[in-house]
Each structure stands twice: as C-alpha cells, then as structure tokens.
Amino acid sequence: MNFSMEEALSYYQKQGAPNDQSALIALLTEIQDAHGGAIPAYLVSQAAEGLKTKEALLLALIRRIPRLRLKDTHCLELCAGPNCSKRAALADFVEKTYGKDAGFEIRYVPCMRQCGKGPNLRWDGKLYNRADEALIRELTAVARKKTTTPSK
Ligand code: FES
To answer: Three-class SS string for 26-79?
Structure first.
C-alpha cells in the first residue's frame, strides 16, 4: 500500500484533526506504519503544515504515546522506476559512496510519476528533478557532517 500524505490529511481532517487528539494519534500511527515503524521527522513537519497546527503539538503527542516513535534521521528516496534507472546509475553511486554507514536512511521507491524530468529523488520528502551525483553529495553533506562530528 502506498502512503499518501494528502489523502491521509484529508481523511483525518474529516475525523476531526487537528482538534480531535484521537484523530491526530490515528494519523501519526498510520504514518508510522507506512514508514517501517517510526515517523520520519520531515513528515511531522508536513503533517503540521497540512493541518495548520504546530509541529510542537505533534511532537509532544509522539513523546506522550509510548507506541509512537520518531525517526530523527534524514531520508533519501531514489526513484527506482525504469526511466530514472535508465538515465542514471544513482543507486550504484549511493551504494558505493555511502554504503551502510550513510548517516541517513536510503529508500528505493517506485516511479515518482515525473519521468520526463528524471532522474528524480526526494530528500526529506522534497522532490528534486534531474538529479545527479553532485546534488546527492550536496544534500547529504549536512547529514554526513552530523554523524562524523566527534561527540564532546
Ligand atoms: S521512472 Fe522515475 S519518475 Fe518515473
């Protein structure tokens, strides 16, 4: 099942979100279930913006409800559709460059429905067209710096 934030927001707004806390919790649970058992931080921001409510409210709910978990890492989604894969071997580049210690989540997703503008990727949910290795290096630099900075 593909998760659509737009559809989820529309559905849970009809259920009373953001004023009804049970609707908010159900929305957060659905986001979590669709993303491997933890809620990506960037989707908390998107949900807050879509519901015209404060991100802090959603974060407080996540902290308060034991079964909800926040995934506080960046996420790189590469289009693995046939057109994007044909145009660039970005998946190979990512595997060779970052491997298992990427410092961010790497996901391969089906066609992003922007084939004419590919290769495409999303970084923390934001779509980038005509992606290349330089763009990936630029986007991931912050995440890599964070994970390689020695702790005090
Ligand atoms: S194959 Fe990548 S957007 Fe369609």
So the answer is: HHHHHHHHHCCCCEEHHHHHHHHHHHCCCHHHHHHHHHHCCCCCEECCCEEEEE
Structural domains in the chain, sorted by start: 5-71 (no CATH), 75-148 (3.40.30.10)
Nearest to 108 by CA among 95, 117, 97: 95
Average pLDDT over residues 143-152: 55
Å from CA of 18 to ligand 1 middle:
34
Residues with CB under 6 A from ligand 1: 79, 81-84, 111-115, 118, 120
With the most atoms of ligand 1 within 8 angstroms of its CB, the residue from 86, 115, 128 to mutate is 115
At position 91, the amino acid (one-letter code) is A
The dihedral built from the CA positions of residue 29, 128, 121 and 75, taken in this order, carries a sign that is negative
Sign of CA dihedral 91, 93, 94, 95: positive
What are the tens digits of pLDDT across the range 10-63? 999 999 999 999 999 999 999 999 988 999 988 999 999 999 999 999 999 999
- Per-residue pLDDT, 103: 84
The pTM is what?
0.69
